[in-house]
Amino acid sequence: MSTVARTRAFPIRDYDLAATLTCGQTFRWHKRDGCWIGVIGTRWVRLQATPGSLVAETAGLNSDWNWLTRYLQLGLDLGAVLRTFPEDEPMRAAVGACRGLRLLRQDPWECLASFILSSTKQIVQIRQIICLLCERYGEVLTVPPARELAYSFPSAARLARLTEAELRSCKTGFRAPYLLTAARRVADGRLDLSRLQSLSVEAARAELTSLPGVGPKIADCVLLFAYGFPSAFPLDVWVTKALQELYFRRRAVPLSHLRRFASVHFGPNAGYAQQYLFHYIRHFRSR
DNA sequence: TACCAGGAGAGCG
DNA sequence: CGCTCTCATGGT
């Protein structure tokens, strides 16, 4: 039965939609009347979490929903992932505090650009910057009647034509030239983001970190959130704090040491474990 | 007001 | 390699 519809319900369990959309892996979702409204690619989407299912509404008709199931990773067996985590007290606490937190599979360009803009910014500020960029340089999207305007994330080609001053007027600060360089490299083909999916995680990381303003942390965010490399382990100030507090008795440990520890301790889905630690330390052990 | 934010790069010893 | 400084700006 290939129904064409504007809405669809997906049976799912252990999916904490709110945590997933607000935990710092994506920046454009907002809550309205108990639902989550956002943009995936060039589609306006409204999501409602109900017990046992997710209900999705779009502006236009869909004959297939693969773009959505892929983004939300609805086919993932979360339990199988959690079973690969180390059986220690910190991981039990982190997972127990937020059962149902998921990793999304995002568009590489939007993810790369977003995290270039993320450095030494709070998540609320990152959201502001990206919102400004989309309103000014994104495309107006079709939305259902009586809904607020929605915009696509601006393409690399669009941003490549901007001046640094125009980018700085979106509050990007010292990150403006970084974003501009990335946009130009992607737009003129020197950097082929779709090719990275076929590379080893090390080779893909090397490609990303060749961009100015993209170091190991931002590269690993893109490797994990856009390409789904399960071993990518973004080590930011929060995860650093979590590791020191939970595994090193609150002692300051060199970053290189933490990287080594993370790569051996958390197993094949270290990136997933990282997201639970990030969420846990930010919401339950702040300061 | 002071501190800090999902960092990275350059300069230094 | 490890440390320090700078970059820009606004939230808390």
Question: How would you summarize the topology of this molecule?
Answer:
Blueprint (H helix, E strand, L loop, with lengths): L4 E7 L5 H6 L7 E3 L2 E6 L2 E8 L2 E10 L3 H7 L5 H5 L6 H9 L10 H9 L6 H15 L18 H5 L3 H5 L7 H12 L13 H9 L6 H10 L11 H11 L7 H11 L4 H15 L3
Antiparallel strand pairs: 1-5, 2-3, 3-4, 4-5
The structure holds a DNA duplex (13 and 12 nucleotides).
Describe the protein in words.
The chain is of the alpha+beta class and 287 residues long. The protein has helices at residues 17-22, 66-72, 78-82, 89-97, 108-116, 123-137, 156-160, 164-168, 176-187, 201-209, 216-225, 237-247, 255-265, 270-284, and strands at residues 5-11, 30-32, 35-40, 43-50, 53-62. Strands 1-5-4-3-2 form a five-stranded antiparallel β-sheet. Strand 3 and strand 4 form a beta hairpin. The radius of gyration is 19 Å and the shape is globular. The N and C termini lie far apart (53 Å). The chain binds a DNA duplex (13 and 12 nucleotides) through helix 6, helix 11 and helix 12.
Give keywords.
single chain, 287 residues, alpha+beta, DNA-binding, 14 helices, five-stranded antiparallel β-sheet
Please give the radius of gyration in angstroms. 19 Å
Q: How are helices and strands ordered from N to C? A: EHEEEEHHHHHHHHHHHHH
| Overall pLDDT level | 96
Number of helices: 14
Categorize the overall geometry. globular
Strand order, sheet with most strands:
1-5-4-3-2
Structural class call reads alpha+beta
Determine the fraction of residues in helical runs and give it as a percent range.
40-55%
Number of strands: 5
Task: State the major sheet.
Answer: 5 strands, antiparallel
Report the sheet-strand fraction: 5-15%
Unreliably modeled segments? none
First-residue to last-residue Cα separation = 53 Å
